[in-house]
Amino acid sequence: MSAEALSPVTSTTSGIDAEQFRAIFRAHPAGVAVVTLHDGHRPVGFTATSVISVSAEPPLVAFSVSTGSSSWPALSASRQVVINFLADDQASLSARFAASGVDRFADGGWRPLPSGVPVLDGCSGWIEAAIHSRLPAADSRIVLVEAMAAWGTGRQPLVYRDRSYHKLIEYEI
Amino acid sequence: MSAEALSPVTSTTSGIDAEQFRAIFRAHPAGVAVVTLHDGHRPVGFTATSVISVSAEPPLVAFSVSTGSSSWPALSASRQVVINFLADDQASLSARFAASGVDRFADGGWRPLPSGVPVLDGCSGWIEAAIHSRLPAADSRIVLVEAMAAWGTGRQPLVYRDRSYHKLIEYEI
């Protein structure tokens, strides 16, 4: 790792404000995932639209999370997660795992793996992964994980953009 | 940055192979961007479906890139990039910036910023950003950048999934 990667991101010399920045990313579509884990006492999970493939060999995935997130204390101490890729009929599940003040697992619709990490029913696919590192980036972390197991169900995916849910229509170039 | 973030990702204890892993991410939809830069002699650019928002304050963005990419030598030495978010009529532009053996800028349709970094015409939005760090992850890098300027045009976005291009249909929960 080069020295530049070690300097914390704290300053901003940016000419744009946070609201301008958020507007650009609201307009950028993304598949929807729910990251789940187990904190030793109970299941934990949160909606994420920032899951990306980093490398296929080894199979590495990254996602970003705010350290202000209610799931961060559990995630900061966890060794494993499941990344549940939501299907196009799971918009309400996405909303539930993004809501505050609710027990996100109370309604069922999930099962624990042998590791205790929950897998959500009805997803388009999921990856069981070991956490490799949590890379600091201002008040957020880029969590880098290595996939240990993966399943795909062939269900169509859910897409989020501009504060609403979408399905896809294929078209030819 | 914690010590764990410093250990390079090289080993794999994974139970899945690269093709299984790729299949999961082929099924995961993503907005399409072209990352452009200038290597001091000529414009450089490549298609990326891994652009994520990391933090709004400061405005941080990340994307992953293989060090085997033809654009990596230029990107590894660059200080600035533009992230061009493609509009839903720009599938051919996406394909051009993912093709090998072609001059991706020969057909025009772009202009240089004062920094020399190209901006592509007709996008749904773009961000001019300073490169903060290039975080190692096996043979890839997670490039963390800070937005300096951003423009949105209101055009509808292009989505990539399962090796084809898509438009979005909004639907209610």
TrEMBL record, chains A, B:
SMART domains: Flavin_Reduct. Gene3D superfamilies: Electron Transport, Fmn-binding Protein, Chain A. It holds the Pfam family Flavin_Reduct. Keywords: Oxidoreductase. The keyword Electron transport does not apply. It comes from the Bacteria. GO terms for molecular function: FMN binding; riboflavin reductase (NADPH) activity. Residues 25-167 form the Flavin reductase like domain. SUPFAM superfamilies: FMN-binding split barrel. GO terms for biological process: pyrimidine nucleobase catabolic process. This is Flavin reductase family protein.
